[in-house]
Every structure is written in C-alpha cells, then in structure tokens.
Amino acid sequence: MDLLPSSHSEFSSPDYWERFFKKRGKIPFEWYGEYPQLHGIIHKYISPANTVLVVGCGNSALSENMYDNGLQNLVNIDISDVVIRQMADRHRVKRFNMTFEKVDVTEMTYPDCHFNAALDKGTLDALMVSEEAPVVQNVQAMFGQIARCLKVGGRYIIISLLQDHVQRILLQFFTDMGWPIRIHRIHTDQTDEGNKSMSMPVFAVVITKFKPMPNMPQIIEVCRFEDRIDRLEGVQYLSAIIKDMQYYHIVRQQLQKHLPGDEQVSLELHSAASEVPRYSLTVVDSPKVLQNKFAIFIVPQGRETEWLFSTDKGRLHLLDSAAFQRLVVVTLNRGHTFENMEAIKAELSSKVMELAPPDCPSKSQVPYLSIGEDIGRRFPVSEGHSEASGGYIVEDVEINGGQLFRRLVFLKNKNVVQTEARLKEVRKKKKRRGQQAREDPPDKVRVDKGYIPCDYLIAMVAGLGFLPSIDKEVSCVLVGLGGGQFPSFIQGAFPKVAIEAVELDPSVVDVATHWFDLQPNDQLKIHVADGLDFVRNLVASGDQRDVLALDVDCKDTSVALSCPPSVFVEHEFLTTVSKLLAEDGLFILNLASRDDGIKQEVLDRIHTVFASCAKVDLEEDINTIVFASNISPAVNSFSDKDRLNAVLKQMSLNIKSVYHDTNVDLVEIMTNLKLSDNEAWVATVSQPEKTTCGGTVPELLGTALTQRPEGDPTSRGRIEYIKGKEKNSENYFVPSCATQMMDQF
C-alpha cells in the first residue's frame, strides 16, 4: 500500500490527505512517536484546566490518550473532511467533551486569546515543504493565526524534526516577535531501538506568548538533559545544538552497519556540567571478520595529537594491533577533570553500547583498552587571544608516567599542538614509596632546549649539513617562529649561526619569550613582520643570506596546503628566495599537505627555480622537508651522501656536547633523503648542440631545451652530463624547468 506522497509538495494538498486517510482507514497513524514518548512534555506544559487546540490532528491516537489522562478540553482541527468525520464518530460516545472540526489552520475564525495551548505534531513539517515564497507565506499565516488565538502566557508546542529549512523560518518568526523558545529532544522507540530505516531525531519546541516588551532580550533555552535547562545567548547557538543532536542520531543509525574501510565516524559527548565536549570519539571498523567484536580505547591526556590516535592511518594501525572488529578511540578533552580510568569507564558505560557493531551481543562486556593505567594530566598555564589565530592556551601536560611537556594550542584547532617543549624540574624531589601521582605541576621547571618535538624540525636542523660549513659565520632567516624550538636549539648547538626570526603574530612572540624561554640576543634577533615583505625588502636592498628556512602554517583550513600558505610557494616568491641566497646558500622548506597532487605541484615549481633539490618525506606525518640550492649537485654536497653523513655525525657530536639528553638524531632523520621524485633524472647525451648563448645544450631524454636569453632570470648555471664513461660539464643558459631532469652521477 503506497501511503507516501509522490512529491513533497503534496503534503500541503487537501486532496492528498483525503486519499491518505481513505486508504489508511481507522488505523491510527503516528507521526514522530506515540503518547508514551510525548506525555512528559505534554503534561509539563499543559494542565487539565487548559483549553487546547490540536493542529492537524489526523487520525492520531494522541488526543484520545491525552483525554484519557486528564486533558479533556481539546479542540481538534484538520484540513481533511474524511478524517474529521472518522474521528468524530470514533470518539462521540466515550470522549464527548473532545471536539473535531474541519478547519484550515491558516484561516481560523476562533476568537483572539481563546486557547491556553496549541499542539502541533507534524503539521508544520507537512506544510513547510520548501522555502519557496508561497510555502513560507502559508506557514507564516499559520503562525500568525495560532499567535492570535493563544492567550498571553499560552504555549505553542510543536513536535518536529526541525530540519534546517523548518527551523530557520520557525525560529526567525518567533524571534522577531520576541517570544521565549525552549527546545526538548524527544526519545522515541523508532529512533532509539534500532529501526533499520533512516530517520531523523524528534524535537519538541515550546514557544510562550509574551506581551511585547521593548529592549528585553529574547529567552532561548534548550533541554539536552532531563534534569537541566540551559539558557543560551542567542538563537544561533540553539541552531548549532540542534545540528549536534541530529548528527549524533544519524551517526548512531550509520553505526548499525559496518563502516567501509575508508570511513571513520567522529562524534562528541557532552556532560550536563559544561558546554565544552567532555569526550571526543572516533569509531573505526576492521575490514576483516574478527572474533573480538568491540572495544573502547582510552587515549591518555596529552597524547591525543600523536599520529597513532589523531590520524586515520594511525587509528587503523591501532585497530589492527588491538584485533577487534570495531574500536572506539576516546580522547579526553581539555577543560575537564578526569579522576582515574575507573571513573571514565563508569561515565562511558551508559553510552558505549549505542556505538556497538550490529553483531555485538547487547549484554556483552565491553573491554576498555589504553596505554597502561596512566590517563595523563593537564595543568593550564596561560590563556590569551591572538588577532591572527584567535584564542589560545598554554598548558603543561604530564604523560608517560611523569614526563612533562609544555604546549601551545590554538583553540580553533584544538587537536593540533602548535608548539611543544619538554620541561625539566629544577629541583626534583624523590617520591616516597606508595606516594600518589601529583595533582599539581612542579613549582619550578625549565624548558629543555635540547629536545625538539617534531621530526620535521629535526630534519630542518639536519639540512644545515648541506652548507659548506657551520663552523664559520652563517646568516639565516627563519620565517615562522612558533615556540622558538628551532632557533633556541641552533642558538645553543651552533653559535656561529646567526638567526633573524620573522613572525607575523606578536602574540606568538610573546608566548615564545614568556613561556618557552626564547632568549633574543645579538645572534638571535626577532622581527614582528610579514615574512613575504621581509624577504622582498632584503632582496630589494641587495642583501643576501646563507639560509632561508620557511616554517609557516596556513590559517585557511579550507585549502589542502597546511604549510606554508600558497603565496610562499608561488613562482614569484620562490624566485625572490633564490635571489636572497648567497652563492652556496640553502633554502629549507617545511611543506605539508594531505593532497599528494598539490604537494607534487609545489615540488615541481621549486624544481623550476632551483638547480638542486632534495627532500625528506616523514613516514608518520604529512610533512616533507625540502632543501634547495642555486648550484648544481656537482658543485654542492647534495649528491655526496658520504660527505653529508660525515657532516651529520660531526654535527651530532657537537649537539650532544651541549645537550646531553637530546632526542635529536640527524643521521637517522636523513635516511630517506631523496634528490628527486623523478627517477628519470639521469641524463643521456647525444651530440651537443651549439646555442646562441655561446655554450652547448645537450639533449636530455630526447627533449630539446628551449633557448632563453642570457639575462633571463629563469635560466641558470651548469649542467653535467655523461658522455661515454666521462663526466662532462659545460656552461650554458637554459630554462630552469630543465633542472628537474638532472640527477646525481
């Protein structure tokens, strides 16, 4: 029996409802739940003495249930003559006080202020089929009639799915009138007991008629918890909360099936005591059929940003190691206190079975996994606001049974650590046997400058090994300061390297100096400036530097290039960088993107500007560290790995002599060093061809190089090629894009 309309616009057609109820007959049809799920809301806001208008009553059993439970002054209206006659006949004898009338809710003739309450279960959703002007006008006419017929203090109760287009018109209309709005989430059997068809969560909107009161702010409230009503600052926050609840409902339905291998579902759990999510959960399913069905993994505080827990690949690796069909990875959010693992289990126990896979027995005992029993601890240190990046927090985090780290986190991207430093206690007292873990951070700590938190920063330090020497004076421009770990480390280990650090955000400089022990001096100067302008101005003044290191994150999260912003890797700026570098100068770039195509485009562009390029791809991260030079591999050390290894070993000895407890291993980080992505770089040469530039241009891989005038800024240097068993080199000018075909010999 087809009881669904062929077009959603039919919902507002009387003819559709005539056909619907003729087919349906006397069988009650319940939109959005039945009386047992709704009685709490109904009896909370409607008393037996109230006269109630039931809008679009249909043949629902709701009115008779209300009547039988003491609410007997009911006026039921509907646009369908068929259903009104059916319902009047059905209830004439047993429920004689209840009336049924055929009325168009948009053109009612009841007196003003006649009803104490109006109840709408699904009618608004049936009428609000789109946001086309005639539909909106029709719905607004209904709102206007109900508002007119309600007494002051009367309630308009709407049971609705609150889809976006519905809530926009509803909330806007009654916000303009200044009436209080309160929303409850209705828990129905259809949504909570595993109905296999997709559905939406059901809400009750309670709107109270007020007299106009100029300058009085509108009251906006939400009931997410049975025993608590939260008042919000504006209707926009209400919309956001509705979306959260709708998302959680849909996620639960989605989890009734096994997730595809490339899909992971994330959601947040709130407590009644805070607006900040207490737990963040990510659900991961194994493509294998496993005997162990379901487990919860608790990530200790402070470790949520690690690759294993914060990336899709890491969580898949964790799932494979745990050997469960489904794993829920739980992170403990900042701003909350967590007593111990047992307390966390007790809190989550009421929710975790909602996320269980479909083949998991409902009464099975769910194992909780973690790394040891230590849930970690956070100690807030400082909070502030940056004009460039928004709110931030500096916090000390204790993990791994006592290791203490200081972190800078920008709250708009709260799961990304912007800066981290290892801390050491100045005076560390031994714990007595049986003494509990401390609840407060140590009184006196200092930043361990021999610790570098990120592999990409270690690779940037190792890149200095490409220079002819770091035992002589080296001038370096660093664009992007962060917490200052890179310059602080260099400052101590290689005092001959003078660094000018350029940072756009003065708040970052303040955090680095106050909380991460960055100490500017003659060898380390800080400039609050735009890095683009700073480099351009140096070039314009004729200055050169031995090193330009670029470590700038992109604030625009809508683009796939996380680091740097795209303007720093456009051809124009890369050419400016090339001009800034001294003859043996080195460009070091932290390049991060989850889009391999975009990353390759940037690498190709760098190849068009610089004669020599090398890179290190970090296995457990999206970062690629790029090294580039204006001179060919034959002249610099790019192609001489033996020489590079020897330099890195000597650098490591220098580092350990200064930082005895360092985590920096330069040789290891450069193990995956590559000179190019293009394996066809080795040049095979036919007869050299004379050019107007006075040199010879070998034909590389059958591709004739386009001639450029000698002064062309995109032409440069030397090329080496193999002729027989001899290595040859000739001076000539070619477009720099040809350098991507050169390799070590």
TrEMBL record:
UniProt GO MF annotations: methyltransferase activity
Pfam families according to UniProt: Methyltransf_31
Record keywords: Methyltransferase, Multifunctional enzyme, Transferase
UniProt key word Transferase: yes
Composition bias, Basic residues: 425-435
Region named Disordered: 425-444
Example GO BP: methylation
Domain Methyltransferase, residue spans: 48-161
Family under the similarity heading: Belongs to the methyltransferase superfamily.
Name of the protein in question: Methyltransferase-like protein 13
